[in-house]
Amino acid sequence: MDTVNTDSLVLLSKLEVMKLFVDTGDVEEVRQAAEWGILDGVTTNPTLIAKSGHGFKETVLKICDLVPDGEISAEVVATDYDTMLKEALEIHSWHPNIVVKVPLIEPGVRLVKTLSDKDIKTNVTLVFTVSQALMAAKAGATFISNFVGRVDDISDDGMNAVASTVDMVNTYGFDSQVLVASVRHPLHVVKALEVGAHISTMPFKIMAMLFKHPLTDAGLKRFLADWDEAGLSIFPKA
């Protein structure tokens, strides 16, 4: 392969866009986010599913239908390896787009290795340090969910671990993707972009905030006022 083609491939690899996931168990929130045309996937957890007021499988399958090309994370709830494996295989059987979500505990890492060997996608959650992320990556995790907001809550900078995890994945060539979780505000999304994270997952209200800026609102108000004052119309007047 000549130098020009090699350089082109490198450039294309750098241009891959960060994915946006919505973190919810609310089917209507998924429906609205999907209508925007920018949704790449959905993450859920036991708390979000419980808040939905509907069954686990029912909710996950509805989400899969709404995001047919997305990756949908659904979490096991057991904490011993044998039961976690049974739950993981059951969840995986529901739909081809489901990613099995697994907590970063010892039996969880063991489970990720087992599922990886079976070509089953996994999302390792509750990751707070680069050493934890290393365990997930070595086990073959598809996604490593680095939590940010919960670290910020204890007066630390959660994005530091995200940056270190991105560096680790890139340096050692792991196949895992770094997923920024526990996103509390749009600045977390901006910081995730700056450090090169592969994915940001956020509550619906935070995703909606990405549209907002006071100058956008002011500018649109002015444009429409000028248009109306001039009596203009896009369509021919009758």
Summary keywords:
16% strand; 12 helices; 238 residues; single chain; TIM Barrel; alpha/beta; eight-stranded parallel barrel
Overall shape: globular
CATH class: Alpha Beta
Q: If classified by CATH, what would the architecture be?
A: Alpha-Beta Barrel
Task: Determine the structural class based on helices, strands and strand pairing.
Answer: alpha/beta
According to DSSP, the number of beta strands is: 8
Terminal CA distance? 63 Å
Determine the fraction of residues in helical runs and give it as a percent range: 40-55%
Can you tell me the CATH superfamily? Aldolase class I
Q: Main beta sheet, described? A: 8 strands, parallel, barrel
Radius of gyration, in angstroms, nearest whole number: 21 Å
CATH topology, by name, is TIM Barrel
Mean pLDDT: 93
Which strand order does the major sheet show? Answer: 1-2-3-4-5-6-7-8
Low-confidence stretches: 8-13
Instruction: Spell out the helices and strands N to C.
Output: HEHEHHEHEHEHEHHEHEHH
How many domains, as an integer? Answer: 1
Number of H/I helices: 12
Strand content: 15-25%
Walk me through the structure.
The chain is an alpha/beta fold and 238 residues long. It has a single domain, classed as TIM Barrel. The protein is 53% helix and 16% strand. It has 12 helices and 8 strands. The chain has an 8-stranded parallel barrel, surrounded by 7 helices. Helix 5 (81-94) crosses helix 6. It is globular and about 70 Å long. The relative contact order is 0.11. The model is unreliable at 8-13 (pLDDT under 50).
